[in-house]
């Protein structure tokens, strides 16, 4: 079982907020809202996305690195984490 299933409701709530924020950007674009308002909405989406990623990274770190059963599992999970972080920080 994935560690994300333990925090499923929290993660889904974050995703639903993101979805709502993206829909707000869509509405703002459709109605011709001022660009500063749209930029602020986009910044909110970026912040919410980063918050989701941090929560997932933290869960991964605790579940697969800190609590790994073997050094091999710990090493593999750490490498996976580094790979994900590199993609996220591009």
From TrEMBL:
Pfam families: Trns_repr_metal (PF02583). GO terms for biological process: negative regulation of DNA-templated transcription. It comes from the Bacteria. InterPro entries: Metal_Tscrpt_repr, Metal_Tscrpt_repr_sf. GO terms for molecular function: DNA binding; metal ion binding. Belongs to the FrmR/RcnR family. This is Metal/formaldehyde-sensitive transcriptional repressor.
């Amino acid at each position: 079982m994935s560690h994300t299933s333990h925090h499923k409701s929290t993660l889904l709530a974050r995703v639903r907020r993101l979805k709502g924020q993206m829909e707000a950007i869509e509405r703002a674009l459709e109605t011709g809202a001022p660009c500063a308002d749209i930029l602020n909405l986009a910044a909110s989406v970026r912040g919410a996305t980063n918050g989701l990623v941090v929560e997932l990274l933290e869960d991964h770190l605790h579940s697969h690195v800190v609590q790994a059963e073997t050094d091999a599992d710990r090493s593999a999970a750490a490498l996976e984490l580094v790979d994900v972080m590199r993609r996220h920080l591009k």
